[in-house]
Amino acid sequence: MPEMDDRIKRVTAAIIDDYTKGRAIDKENTFSQPEKEAVVDIIEKLQKIIFPGFYRMKDYRYYTVESMASTLVEDVLFNLIKQISLSLKYCESCDPLNEEETAEKAREKAFAFIEKIPSIREYIDTDLQAEYDGDPAAYSKDEIVYSYPGFYAIVVYRIAHELVRLKVPLIPRMMSEYAHSCTGIDINPGAEIGKYFFIDHGTGIVIGETTRIGEHVKLYQGVTLGAISTRKGQLLKGKKRHPTIEDNVTIYAGASILGGDTVIGADSVIGANAFITSSVPSGSRISIV
Predict the structure, then answer these.
(1) Which ranges of the chain have pLDDT less than 50?
(2) Pairing of strands 212-213, 186-187
(3) What are the sequence ranges of the domains in the chain?
(4) pLDDT at 61
(5) What is the pLDDT of residues 195-221, one digit of tens each?
(6) 260 within 8 A of 241, measured Cβ to Cβ
(7) From edge to edge, which strands make up the β-sheet containing 224-226?
(8) What are the tens digits of pLDDT across the range 86-109?
């Protein structure tokens, strides 16, 4: 139909013209940034490395755990080096690098991450123990690994946080937002979280970038550990905007704890729907009357 062809040509020309306005959304170098599908693939393969007996290996055939681990490590390294290379141009504080220097830096960071996997697994094992000890509805640890969204969000956070510590741009946030989209739990990979972290139910939990959480902390659904105000936007980058939660704290559903100077003292219990913008001492019991 000539009329249809003409309309398609006109609207296409208008869209092409709109691409020329120099905005952030007009970027055309399609293959020069990390790929979401590759980042998700890295997460899934890291799960198989972290939990060697839990996830079926559909793409590989192997006879020993050594051959399985070796194959997965090589696969993850190959993809991670490529994605880190693509992400390094997003590092605002880095010196410009040529192609060879970028590739070498990506290799260093990827190997440094892989070497941290035993440490990541150590933390994840304590998180699994906390989930099991804290939830009488859990009949086995296997059930938690396979089905608990809170535990999955923590696992992805542990992976992404290690990449943050290695100053890998962009990829950690892509990982955490993928977990967010799967679980409804939003943990910024820059947050610092100690061992034995327990999320119960989890939907709607928000943990901001500069949050610090101690050990043996338990959060229920809908908890926000956030900033008091973000109206200053980018002017607040790098500043402590989110609260500190000390050891052995329980925070019940719907509570909001806000502000970079706010500290919840150790061994405290924060009741459901509490709204807190100032510090409370150790051993506090806060509830809405």
Answers:
(1) none
(2) unpaired
(3) 32-190, 191-289
(4) 66
(5) 999 999 999 999 999 999 999 999 999
(6) yes
(7) 186-187, 206-207, 224-226, 256-258, 275-276
(8) 999 877 667 777 888 889 999 999
Q: How many helices (H) and strands (E) does the chain have?
A: 8, 14
Q: For domain 32-190, is the CATH number 1.20.1270.50?
A: no
Residue 197 corresponds to which amino acid? F
Answer whether 195's CB lies under 8 Å from 123's CB.
yes
> Given this model, what pLDDT does residue 13 score?
86
pTM to 2 decimal places: 0.89
141 CB-contact burial (10 Å; exposed 0-12 / middle 13-18 / buried 19+)? middle
- The domain 191-289 having CATH identifier 3.40.50.300: the answer here is no
Which residues are within 8 A (CB) of 172 and not within 5 positions of it... i.e. 6 or more apart? 160, 161, 163, 164, 189, 190
